[in-house]
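Response to reviewer comment R2.3. The reviewers asked that we include at least one raw input/output pair. We reproduce the pair for DNA-binding transcriptional regulator, LysR family here without editing.
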Amino acid sequence: MSNQIEFRHLRYFMIVAQELHFRKASERLFITQPGLSRQIKQLEDELGVQLFIRNKRQVELTDAGRYLYDESSNLLNQLESIKRSIKLIDKGEEGELNIGFVGSAMQAVIPHLLLKLNEQFPKIHTSLEEMSNEDQIFAIEHNKLDIGFIRAKQAPEGIASRQIFKDNFSIVLPKHHHINEDNFKDLSQFAQDNFILFSSDYSRTYYNKVMSIFDDHGFAPKISHKSVHANTIFRLVENGLGIAIVPTSLKHGFDLDIKFIELKNVKQITYLSLIWKEGTTNELIKKFVSLVG
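Raw output as returned:
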C-alpha cells in the first residue's frame, strides 16, 4: 500500500463495510456523510479499485471490497495487539498472550501450563477467554487470538496444532440415579432418558463423535438441552433434567451432586489440541508452545 493510505482510511472503510449505509457509518464515526464519502473515494482512488457498489437503495461490497475487509480486519486486530504489548514492554514486561479455550482444557491442562509460563517467562501476561472451537479458529485466523485449546485432533489449513491430551468419555448422572458403576452395562440402558449435550457450536467434530457413540449402541438420543458450557450441563443434570456424555477430564473441578461413569468400552476418544497461526513470528507464542514439549 502507498504511504498515502492511512489507518483512518481503513477504519472508515471497515465501519462502512459493517453498516453498508453511509449515513449510519458517518454517525458511528462522528463525521459528516460527505466527509466520509471523500475518505472512501480517496481509498478507492489510491488502490485503483471500486470497493462499494452504491445506488440510491443500497450499498454493497465488491469482491475487492470483501477481500480488503478481511485483510483490514486482520491488520487492525494485529495493530491493537501490538499497541497492548508495547504498553507492557514499556513497563518492563514482555507482552501479552490472548488465549482461548474450551471449558475442559481449564480442568485438564491450562492451570499447569500457566504455572510453567509464570515460572519460565514471568514477564509474559495472559488474557483468557472460554470459546467454542469454531470461534477460536476464526479468532486466530483474524489475529484476535494468539493461542487456542480446541476439542479436535487436527486444525484447518493455516492453523498449526499440537495434540496435547486425549480423553475417554463418561456418562454424567444425578448422584442418586439408580444406575452406578456396579450395575452399569452399556449406554443402551439410557435409551429412554433425556440427554443434555454440548452444542455443535462447541465443536461440530466433537458433536458428531458423540453422536457416533449413540449410533454404535443402536439408538438416537432424545436431546432435551444443549450448551457450550460444562457447568450449565452439570447443573441441568444435577436438577434431574437429563443425563450427559462429556470428556472424562471434566469430572475434576466441580462440586455438584452428580456422578461420572467412564465409558471404558467405547472406541471413540476425544482429543485436546493446542493451536496457533501457522508461520507466526510472535516470539511469545513460540515460548508458550515450547512449554508443551
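The chain is about 40% helix and 25% strand. Residues 70 and 142 are 8 Å apart (CA to CA). Further pairs are available on request from the corresponding author.
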